Amino acid sequence: MATSSDDTRIDTASRVILAPARAIFRAMTDAESVTSWRPPKGMHARVEAFDARPGGGYRMAFIYDDPEPGVIGKTTADEDLFTGRFAELVPYERIVEEVDFQSDDPGFAGAMRVTTTLAEVKDGTRVTISAENVPTGIGVEEHREGIASTLRNLAAFIE
């Protein structure tokens, strides 16, 4: 499938979470934990496969709780199904994922690279999520708010 991504665009959000990097890394690499915090506001997750190791991967869906009129999922009317590969897992420091959405819409084609960095700070850990090669079908503001929502969820889950 042809790619449809903007290789110059980087969507980023950051937040200090009141927890050690070790606990955050564990929450990010445990399938059950991921379903609790990763979906953005208004969605819930279903994990179909999860193998958190370098070269391992996952298959996951974000399902809209109550789709708004005009909002359509990337895969079905109310679902975003995607696969990911753990390109890099550096314990307590960094996770790099390559994410592909399952969609017939070419605007969602191509592998998006998501890098999460953990940096210990005085009051906890600064967690930064950066997405590169974002498919053009994903709106900039919508995506940035989604990343920020995910970080709020992670903080609520772990603090």
Folded structure, characterized:
The protein is α+β, with helices and mostly antiparallel strands and 159 residues long. The protein has one domain (5-158): START domain (Alpha-D-Glucose-1,6-Bisphosphate, Chain A, domain 4). 21% of the residues lie in helices and 45% in strands. The chain has helices at 21-28, 31-37, 140-158; strands at residues 5-17, 43-50, 57-64, 79-90, 94-101, 112-121, 124-135. A seven-stranded antiparallel β-sheet has the order 1-7-6-5-4-3-2, with helices on one face.
Mean pLDDT: 90
Q: How many DSSP E strands?
A: 7
Question: What is CATH's topology name?
Answer: Alpha-D-Glucose-1,6-Bisphosphate, Chain A, domain 4
Overall geometry: globular
* Helical proportion, percent range: 10-25%
Please identify which CATH superfamily we are dealing with. START domain
CATH architecture: 2-Layer Sandwich
What's the number of domains? 1
Please identify the structural class as seen in this structure: alpha+beta
Largest sheet: 7 strands, antiparallel
Widest sheet: strand ordering: 1-7-6-5-4-3-2
Helix and strand run? EHHEEEEEEH
Keywords:
159 residues, alpha+beta, Alpha-D-Glucose-1,6-Bisphosphate, Chain A, domain 4, seven-stranded antiparallel β-sheet, 3 helices, 21% helix
Quick description:
The protein is α+β, with helices and mostly antiparallel strands. The protein is 21% helix and 45% strand.
Write the layout of secondary structure elements.
Blueprint: E1 5-17, H1 21-28, H2 31-37, E2 43-50, E3 57-64, E4 79-90, E5 94-101, E6 112-121, E7 124-135, H3 140-158
Antiparallel strand pairs: 1-7, 2-3, 3-4, 4-5, 5-6, 6-7
